[in-house]
Amino acid sequence: MINDTGIQNNGDFIQPDGETYEKNLKNLVLYAYGAISGLIVAIILILLDLKLPAGVLIIATAALGIFLVKKATNLLSSVKTSLFDVAASNKIKDKVITDFSHKIREPLNNLVIITDMLMESDLHKKQKELLETFVASTKNMVSSVNELTMKSAGHLSFESRKHIRFNLFSTIQHTIELYNLKDKSNIDFILNKKDVSGFDCFGDPITLKQILLDIFNTIENHDSERPTKVNISLRKEKETAREVFVGIRIQTDKDIVLIDEKELKYSLAARLITARKGIYIQEFGTNYTVLTISLPFTNVSYEQGGQAGTAKTIELPRKDYVHKELKDINILLAEDNLINQKITLLTLKPLVSSIDTASDGKEAVDKFTSGNYDIILMDIQMPVMSGLIAAEKIRVLEASLETHIPIIAITANAMLGDKEKCISAGIDDYISKPFQPSHLIDKIKKYI
Asked: Residue range 148-162: average pLDDT?
C-alpha cells in the first residue's frame, strides 16, 4: 500500500515509492523556489522605489509561501508517521530522512534569508503582517525538520560506521544544542567546562549522540511541573596506548530512572552502551539521580599512523595573524547552487569588500592555491569534489605553508554526526541551513 506521501508500507517493510515521493518533494522545492524568485523580484522593485507592485508581489509570494509550508508540514508529518510506525528497514529510513532533510533545508534557508531582508525594508502594515505570518510558518517548518533530525536518532541503524576523529566535549555540547532546538524543552543543562582539553579521540560520534538523546528523552518524559536540571561532566578514567576510557556523569535534580533495568530491551541507551563494550551505573537519592557511563574510545596517538595528516593539519596555527574588520576581508564562497550562491552574496556583499566564488570543491582548491583569502565558506554536497574532500586537500596544502585559513561549512547536511565529519576533515566551524544572516556574520567575525 502506498500512502499519499509516496511511502510504501508492506506490513513489516517500508520503502519510498520513487515516482510519487520524488514528485511530491520536487513540487515542494519548485513552490519554494517560486516563492524565492518572487521575493527577490520584490526586493529589486523596492530598490527601484516601485513600492506598489512590490507590495502586491510580496502579498502573493507570502501567500504562496504559507501554502508551501503547510504542504511541506503535511508531507513531513506523513513521512514521520510512515517511517516510525514500522520497526524494520533502518537503512531505508536513514536514506529517506537524510534526503528529505537536505532537499527541504536548501530552499527553506533562502526563504529565511530573504524574508529577513524584507522585514527590514519599508513595508506597509498589511504587507508586514502577512510576511510575519509567513516567517512564523517558515520557523514552524524549520522546527519540524529539526524534530525529524532529533527523532531519527533512535531509529538509525546499528551497523558499523566509519570512525573519525572528534572531540568528546564538543560532541556532547553539540548534542545539547540539537536537543535545545525543540520547541518545548523542559531541561536545564549545565555542562561542566572544567579541564575540557585532551578529549580528542577516534570513534563513532553518532553512537554517543544516540545514547545521550535517548537519556534526554527519558528525562523529558518524566512528569514534572518544573524543568529538570541536568549536570553533565567528563573525566578520563583510564588510558592505554590503544584506548582511552571516558566517564560521562549525568546528574538530575529529581529521582528519575534513566535506564530501566527491568525493561533493558526497550532502552536504546543501554543497548548502545553494551554494544560499545561500555558499562553504566545508576545511583538514586531522595531528590537526585546519578548515571555514570564508561565508554572506551580509540586513542588519537594509536591512530596517527593512518590519519596523521588530517590530525596535524587541523591544529596548524595561523601565522602572522592580524585582526581585520569585516569590510576588509577576502572570502572564498564554495557553493554549486547558483541561487544559494547569489543569496549568500546578497547577504554578505553590503558588508564585505571582496568575495570570490567556486562552483565545486576542485575549483575551490584551485582558487585557494592562487588566491589570498581570510576565510572560506564551504558547501558540503558539491559535484566533481565534495566540500569534505576539498577541505582535507586544503589542509594538506597548508601543511607546507605552515598557515591556517578558517573554513566554515554552510550545509544542508544537518543529521547526527555531520558536524563531527566536518571537523574531522579539518573544517573549523559548521552552520546548518536554514540560518539567520546574523548567525553567519557572527560566525565569520569569530575567525577574523
From this structure: 57
Going from N- to C-terminal start, the domains of the chain cover: 7-155, 164-304, 326-446
CA–CA gap between residue 296 and residue 401 (Å, rounded)? 36
Tell me if residue 50 falls in helix, strand or coil.
coil
Q: Nearest Cα to 335, choosing from 417, 433, 444, 404?
A: 433
Question: Amino acid letter at 289?
Answer: T
Closest to 443 measured CA to CA, from 419, 410, 416: 410
Sign of the torsion angle spanned by Cα atoms 274, 278, 282, 288: negative
The percent of residues above 90 in pLDDT, for the chain, comes to 17
pLDDT tens across 66-87, in order? 777 777 777 766 666 655 544 4
Give whole-number Cα distances, 205 to 210, 368, 417, 430, in Å. 9, 30, 6, 16
SS3 state of residue 293: strand
The class (CATH top level) of 164-304 is alpha beta
| Virtual torsion, Cα 300, 303, 305, 306, nearest 10 deg | -130
**Res. 314 pLDDT band, cuts 50 70 90:** very low
CA distance 374 to 314: 16
The three-state secondary structure class of 93 is: helix
Q: Greatest CA separation found in the chain?
A: 71
Q: Which single residue is written with the C-alpha cell 560506521?
A: 161
Tens of pLDDT along 282-302? Answer: 999 888 999 999 999 888 776
The three cell numbers locating residue 146 = 529539526
pLDDT of residue 319: 46
- For the domain spanning 7-155, the CATH number is 1.20.1050
C-alpha cell at 256: 528519575
Helix 338-348 and helix 437-446, axial crossing angle in degrees, nearest 10? 70
Q: What percent of the chain has pLDDT over 70?
A: 76
Specify the CATH number for 326-446; select among 3.40.640.10, 3.40.50.2300, 3.40.50.280, 3.30.450.70.
3.40.50.2300
The model carries a pTM of 0.62
Question: Which residues face 297 on adjacent strands?
Answer: 244
**What's the one-letter identity of residue 152?**
S
Q: Among 18, 430, 38, which residue's Cα sits nearest to residue 205?
A: 430
H or E element in which residue 291 lies: strand 289-299
